[in-house]
Design goal:
GO terms for molecular function: RNA binding. 27% of the residues lie in helices and 25% in strands. It is of the alpha+beta class and 839 residues long. It has a twelve-stranded mixed sheet with strand order 28-27-26-29-30-35-34-33-16-1-31-32, with helices on both faces. Strands 2, 8, 9, 10, 11, 14 and 15 form a seven-stranded antiparallel sheet that branches. β9 and β10 form a beta hairpin. The longest helix is centred in the C-terminal third of the chain and has 19 residues. It starts with a helix and ends in a 15-residue tail after the last helix.
């Protein structure tokens, strides 16, 4: 689950939860042990709720998905969720999302959601079964500090002063205490003392009794497992723990880096069992504090900084939490406006003062990113092959056998299988791809560039009028580009006339001044399908963002023309001809042409992709990208942007977007589509109900107003940022699964109609699968149909003659939202809405 989706879904409470109280040990009413099924299943999903909360803020989260209590409902849970604060404490970092049972009303997958197509293969996943865990109820207590204590470590230290009263066997998350046995009293008050002799009162009050399989229990089990990392002396940075330092000195300007290798883990409930998902993680640190960087600036540039000694009261906090000592007492302070949180942008942020000596520089410098050798060295250290990843995870499980770790886990009767989870997958056949008069299939790596070389495009567009702008020091590169374009376009079937070549000064305004002059008078416009079609290519001396944004904004808003910007050094590369071939293909797509089509075996079906861009740096408005296919062959697309409040993920104007897309469809086809399949990217598991209540409901309601019975709708959530990995075992060797590998058993959820697809091949490291969750379906898509369709759409991204990680409409929506959010920051001109101008 992505971090941006988590923020609106839940947090950790700054004040204790207000839940219905019940005495520990008192017998309770019998509870269902399994998800109850309705007496009669209907073909259509349950009605979308008229009203409902977007998220339930109190639900804790896991690293990639959610745990479910198998239908066990905890007393007072609903009432408690409604009264909890949105401002919640984030200590420990292990959370779990609210599980919405989106499968129970889909009759066509009531009995099975497992497909059958494809070649069966045996896979290994980076999961370890939990073979033993607590079987008896446990007891949850709220913990309050008076006065309040912000530091998580200090809260733990103060509570541990009374460990004899509640025992070694306990789990504390900074806000709540979990015990295997109840305390003698419902509410107790203890007094603790800080190192500077200040008194802190701790109020511990009974909250509720939890069954071992409840979501809350799994959240605490994650906290328990993370404690084992502390026993192994791993270092915590952010939410994760790291064990191995890999020093790496880059030659580029002598930058020193440290790569820390660690683990990302989560204990969650899946189809048949609870498993521990473990993956290798890397943290890149520059061995340079902000204070060091400031000293460097003072020596290099004439900068005037005002010293501001940190207040004495800070020394206590740092000594207590981090054992850090400030040595440079005269250093300027860093002012942060506080962390940006979605849904809370209207609240006033209090500035946070940071001490440069205690802050380290993060990320890579531009010089490092541009240096091929440096990036290659980094990749060699961080991109682990399947075998290396497998061995590292086996080493993690071996370390769990250490005596101090076992002593901690045995307190709660926790044991893990020492072997990685084995399961079956299926490899789907590659889609049939049609280009020109040839039908081909992707090779074993999911690519077909070689198979269609020198083959005409499916729908070439003549390039009769085009303008080539270049700066004064790029004249040679301009000639190379022009000559190669003449060579590569002929085999594609593109007829191209000579370019109008104009030299400019190189600054941003010089490009737009020329464009203003030539776009209206000097060029002959060619009218195709009522659109003014010609191309502008700009060769840029470097990758200066301001120049690029200035040009793109003018050509996408003021005077809408398909455009291509190429950096000078790109044309100077050895593989320049290959690169220019791709430029020609992009030009064809941006002018309304098509490169190839894919055989989907479905008729009159519109495919829609939705994704959002959030500017977390400048905190500008969020951009939702909407892209829809507008013909049966999936070669024409309609796009629209929706500007929303900062951080807003759910889209509020989908009815307008859908109406416009259907209008364009009717211009291209003789009849309306019968089915609409939406691929929604960028949301987390905690927002599934919100998607049903808002986005799916908007589209469903609008379709009913057109024709109550003629439209069917499916809504599929796409999740890329997951920690699950799959390995194909061949003897003693491990390798990445082949493109088209589908997994719909073991690591899917009973509550969901979900599956994984490995849709691409990677040359370095371990491939990451994509998780798909069908949350709404009135079409009645069978598992084989939805899996095959999804994989076919991964062949339709026109920027690459190969398969990509997500379906093409989903990635088009991402590209559109990113371009508008990063560069244009205005709605593109409507005349571009039927062109792939954002490629």
């Amino acid at each position: 689950m992505t971090g941006r989706a988590r923020t609106t879904a839940r947090g950790r409470a700054r004040r204790r939860e207000r839940e219905e109280q019940e005495a520990p040990g008192v017998p309770r009413a019998p509870e269902s042990a399994a998800v109850s099924e309705p007496a009669q299943w209907q073909r259509t999903p349950r009605p979308l709720r008229e009203e409902g909360p977007v998220v339930r803020p109190r639900q804790p989260r896991g690293a990639e998905g959610t745990a479910q209590s198998r239908g066990v409902k905890e007393p007072g849970l609903e009432a408690g969720l409604q009264t909890l604060s949105l401002q919640e404490r984030r200590i420990g970092g292990v959370f779990q999302d609210l599980v919405v049972n989106t499968r129970r009303d889909m009759m066509h997958v009531k009995n099975s959601k497992t497909g059958s197509e494809g070649e069966v293969v045996q896979l290994i996943a980076n999961h370890f079964r939990v073979i033993s865990h607590p079987q008896l109820p446990v007891f949850k207590y709220n913990v309050d500090y008076k006065p309040d204590v912000e530091a998580g470590n200090l809260r733990q230290i103060l509570l541990n002063q009374h460990i004899r009263k509640f025992g070694e066997c306990h789990i504390f998350d900074g806000n709540c205490l979990l015990l295997p046995q109840p305390l003698r009293e419902r509410k107790v008050e203890w007094v603790s003392t800080t190192e500077d002799k200040k008194i802190v009162r701790i109020v511990v009050e009974f909250s509720k009794e939890l069954v071992p399989t409840s979501p809350d229990c799994l959240r605490f089990y994650n906290i328990l497992f993370r404690k084992t990392f502390k026993e192994l002396n791993l270092k915590q940075i952010g939410r994760h723990y790291y064990t191995e330092k890999i020093p790496l000195t880059l030659e580029r300007r002598g930058t020193s880096l440290e790569i820390w290798r660690g683990y990302v883990t989560s204990i969650l409930q899946y189809e048949n069992s609870i498993t521990l998902c473990a993956d290798v993680n890397h943290k890149l640190l520059r061995i340079e504090t902000v204070y060091d960087f400031i000293i460097y600036l003072l020596k290099t540039y004439p900068i005037i900084l005002t010293p501001f000694p940190p207040p004495k009261r800070w020394s206590y906090s740092f000594l207590q939490q981090h054992k850090e000592i400030i040595t440079a007492m005269k250093q300027p302070l860093l002012v942060s406006q506080g962390r940006w949180k979605k849904g809370q942008t209207g609240t006033q942020r209090q500035p946070i003062l940071l001490i440069p000596q205690l802050c380290y520089m993060t990320g890579l410098t531009d010089e490092i990113r541009k240096d091929y050798t440096s990036m290659k060295d980094l990749a060699a250290k961080t991109k682990l092959s399947p075998k290396e990843r497998h061995n590292s995870l086996k080493g993690l499980m071996k370390s769990m056998k250490e005596e101090k770790v076992q002593a901690l886990l045995q307190l709660w009767d926790f044991r893990f299988d020492s072997n990685l989870l084995s399961l079956q997958g299926r490899v789907l056949s590659n889609a049939n791809i049609f280009q020109g008069r040839r039908m081909v299939q992707a090779n074993a790596c999911g690519e077909w560039a070689r198979e269609v070389r020198e083959v005409p495009l499916l729908s070439p567009v003549p390039l009769h009028s085009w303008l080539l702008l270049y700066s004064r020091n790029c004249s040679r590169q301009a000639m190379i580009l022009k000559d190669h374009l003449q060579e590569v376009t002929a085999p594609m079937g593109i007829t191209m006339r000579p370019a109008h070549m104009i030299e400019v000064d190189g600054h941003a305004d010089s490009y737009t001044h020329i464009l203003q002059k030539y776009t209206r008078s000097a060029l002959q416009m060619v009218r195709i399908s009522c659109l003014l079609v010609f191309e502008v290519i700009c060769i840029l001396p470097n990758d200066d963002k301001d120049r690029y944004d200035h040009i793109k904004k003018y050509l996408c808003t003021t005077f809408p023309i398909p455009s291509q910007c190429v950096v000078k050094r790109t044309i100077e590369k050895v593989q320049a001809r290959t690169i220019i071939t791709k430029i020609a293909q992009q030009m064809n797509c941006k002018m309304g042409g098509a490169l190839w089509r894919v055989e989907t075996n479905v008729q009159r079906t519109m495919f829609i992709g939705i994704d959002c861009f959030h500017d977390i740096v400048n905190r500008q408005k969020s951009i939702a990208g909407f892209v829809a296919s507008t013909n049966a062959e999936l070669t024409k697309w309609y796009s629209q942007c929706v500007f929303q409040a900062t951080g807003e993920e759910l889209v509020n104007e989908l009815q307008t977007c859908l109406k416009a897309a259907l209008d364009v469809w009717c211009e291209n086809e003789s009849s309306m589509p019968r089915s609409i399949i939406v691929y929604r990217d960028g949301v987390g598991d905690g927002q599934l109900q919100a998607l049903l209540d808002q986005e799916a409901k908007q589209m469903s309601t609008y379709l009913k107003t057109i024709s109550p019975n003629n439209f069917a709708l499916a809504f599929i959530v796409v999740k890329k940022r997951i920690n699950t990995r799959f390995f194909l075992k061949r003897g003693s060797y491990f390798e990445n699964p082949r493109p088209g590998t589908v997994i719909d058993v073991e690591l899917t959820r009973n509550e969901w109609y979900d599956f994984f697809i490995v849709s691409q091949s990677v040359r370095e490291g371990t491939v990451t699968p994509t998780h798909y969750n069908v949350i709404y379906d009135t079409i009645g898509l069978s598992p084989d149909t939805v899996q095959r369709l999804t994989y076919c759409l991964c062949h339709m991204y026109y920027n690459l003659p190969g398969t990509i990680r997500v379906p093409a409409p989903c990635h088009y929506a991402h590209k559109l939202a990113y371009l508008v959010g990063q560069s244009i920051q205005e709605k593109p001109n409507r005349s571009l809405s039927t062109l792939l101008f954002y490629l």
